[in-house]
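Quick sanity check, alpha-glucosidase:
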Amino acid sequence: MLDFLQALWLTILTCLLLSPSKITQVTAIDFSSSQTNPDSVAQKRAIPNCGGYTLHTIREDDASLSAKLSLANKPCNIYGEDITDLTVEVTFETTTCLHVNIFDTASEQYRIPASIVDRPGPQGGSKKSSDLVFNYEPSPFAFWVTRRSQPHAAPLFDTRSKSSTCSSSSTVNADYVLKNATNLDCQTFVFKKQYLQLTSTLPKDTNIYGLGEVVASSGFRRNMNSTVQTMWNRDAPDPVDENLYGSHPVYMEHRFDPDTRRSQSHGVFLMSAAGGDVLLQTPPSSDNSLIQYRMIGGVLDFYFFAGPSPQAVIEQYGELIGFPLWQPIWAFGFHLCRWGYKDIAETREQVIQMRKANIPLEVMWNDIELYHAVRDFTTDPISFPAEEVRDFIRELNANKQHYVPIVDAGIPKQVNATDVYHPYTNGAAQDVFIKNPDGTEYIGQVWPGYTVFPDWFHINTQNWWTEALQNWSLSGVKFSGIWLDMNEASSFCEGSCGTGVDLSNTTAPFFLPGNPGNMVVDYPECYNSTIHGPSGNLSVGGRLTCHLDLDNDFEGLQGKEQSPFALPMTSQTAHSDLEINEDRAAYLPDSFALEGDPREALLPWASHLAQDDGLNTTSAKRDLGAGTQKGINLNAPPYSIHNPFERLSTLTIATNATHVDGQVELDTHNLWGLMEEKATYKALQSIISGKRPFIISRSTFPSSGRWTGHWLGDNFSLWSYLRHSISGVLQFQIFQIPFVGPDTCGFAGNTNEELCNRWMQLSAFMPFFRNHNIKGAIPQEPYRWDSVAEASRKAIAIRYALLPYWYSQFALSSLSGTPPLRALFFDFPNEPELFDVDSQFLIGRDILVTPVLHPQATTVKGHFPGRGSVTWRDWYTHEPLKVAPGHQAELPAPLGHINVHIRDGSAILLHSQPAYTIEETRQGSYSLLVSLDSQGIANGIAYVDDGISEPPGPSRSLEFTATNKQLTIKTTGSFVIQPKLQNITILGIVLSESGTVKFNGQEFNTTYDVIKQRLTLADINVDLNEDIIVCQFI
């Protein structure tokens, strides 16, 4: 949904006077001080070489090593106090996973509880069985990880200072994040309560993927010259090269050896919920690159994955954090939503118009208009009467369609004694909301006004959450799944701004899009109204109206995104004086005038907060972190991470807000969304018993994929974001959250016919397929334009035909962590020209998608991997593509056409007749598409079950093996497949003419195309439940 972070930051920090007819362009304000804390050390200062730590008291066995670390010299006390005594534990957990955990011996630093992210622990690994080798130097302590199979190759991870050429003069070019320079010094490692630093040397300009969530200007492959990836979950409308909704401190590195022409991949994961920066840098005149971790809490809990293939790295990461959930099969259909369907009649009208246009619609969604007074778990009695909503959902279900509503993070605070809102009163009675340090309720501000936030650590919260969702379903909103939004968690004000104010004022501190003062009237990208008039059409008088300079404009689009927000409104509840209470979470007034340097308004209260140690008087408990430690600055840590909002509490829950067991938001902030997802999953298991929960969430963290899918947030109706969506989806394959997709056609701003045409086709080949846009923008449902409707019908027909293939890829993901979508180099790891390709992608190993990503294109260029050893056949014509090895091919791509190719050696089970819904499609017959390789061989698998049971019930696995002489189908499992195999098409088969085939002894006629080498069998009506099915070519 709509992200208000940049706009609200603007509300707090400046009062710009802009035209109300245009979308506000947000400009960052430069703060030269760190975290607005005058006592903190400026980021441009390097940490002096403190001497590091000395290792001693070593204990080893065949599978592990443990030792103590003691501070080698006197404490430096820069960025806080050094912790003098540490422990390092090294465990070979599996043959492919090495665990290196460095933590404070007193166990006061925060560690993620196993109840939040459970890990399997040692699984029989040993030093001898692992290809990973742990090496170390005792003084100053440093370690490096190598491969046993490549003893002379560069280490995979190397913290020795002598291995790098960085110095305190090496700076990251991070002006796009903050104006402060960022030093990259070579201190072995630093371990303080609120600053942990570790640096590893990497091969120069190596291939790094992951570290997110981010819309990276460099694309899927990360920039090794000037990347600062901040780990701090943030409600922001998809800015480029900044931290976003989720934090994933995991990366995959892919190394190519030019001598052997072979590649290997490995992975590195830091198991930490702490805020922090991860820097990627290649120092000037250096022979290597560097990665540096700077965390403001927690421990250094690393996992290393041996790979050696990209897929193996991703699978090994999944073995640690958990494989993705089983999606209900209907989730692979087309979803439709917008912020702005004003009532149930308008919502129903979309369903009618989609059916009228014959564009398949599987799932209808509603945004916050559904609510009464914008309150979770309600329906508006005028625009969405509960009984009418109930009837509407029954209509959908009767037509084999589904319904998903939104749930926001903030729970409205009861306004007065006569205010009846059971989710709040029940929650307050059970004490399930986050607190201020003094034990009072923490009160933020979101859509309904002043809100409280669930404390997921409380033992009562799960039952309270389940009851709220259950009651909502019983009231008429009988949902098939839930959309979790704003769960970073987002709050429009800073701190407990609802403490001591008039709670009855529910006015938002800004103009909503589409309302006077913030009308969304900008023309679509590249449309020139002075030339073509006010229509905004794709063409006028037969001439195209888009005049985008591809050499200049397109590459710069990522810097032109606009925030969909308006002028700040003057709040009626603004404080006359800035009030600070040490016992309550810090807050700013709702609005205040800023004259001159805005830092003058912020620094006085920041200085006061620097003296607020939160719960420092509480006795320490193990692993509970900052809330129970002394000498901690909860509100302004001494090191300022590169969070563009400067203060960590801006537009989220304050960092000194407190949970039931003493944990504080400073440590647990990045876990909030994950914990809500887990609680929602468990609630849906109870409410929709026996069926798979469907959840789409905005904020994510490692292991979120076990509970939810994800959409890529509030993107923009720009061509650059069409391309960004591919990198985003590939990024989340690494994160083990494979069910992911963008807001198709763009969320913010006005889309146009051509962009929406191309985007609908691209998203049809992404896992989560939803069209969604902002309130006040032009409608963009696919039936609005004839060309978009036709392109959508064509692409969705292919998607639904491929449903057995899609479902099988996701079954592999849920069973073993195999990524359903893949960058080209995942399957062709030894072709360097593919390492930075993010304009194409593979579905599984066998389907290659080459979309158009530029306006006014009639052709598209693409890589076709294999360097001549692989034949790629056109999906539509079945003709083999002819392309020189290692070169790109230029393909026809008229508007409405997306290029799709089939890899040789594949056997793909399809639905013969894609229908309007997933269920209707599944009731139809199957077909089999086989593409033989140069040796006349092909293989494939399919996984079939009922698609909805939780846990998954009986299933049947099909294994296809084809040669020039016969096709064999082996089936195992107890699930009974009702539809029959009706048609088979075999490509690349060499026969003299059409003839007959024998299927388990029964003869059938065939059709053979000599030019395309295509054999077709029709109306064979084969039962797929037989143990072995043999088709012999005579």
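Posting the structure with no commentary besides this: The chain has a mean pLDDT of 86.
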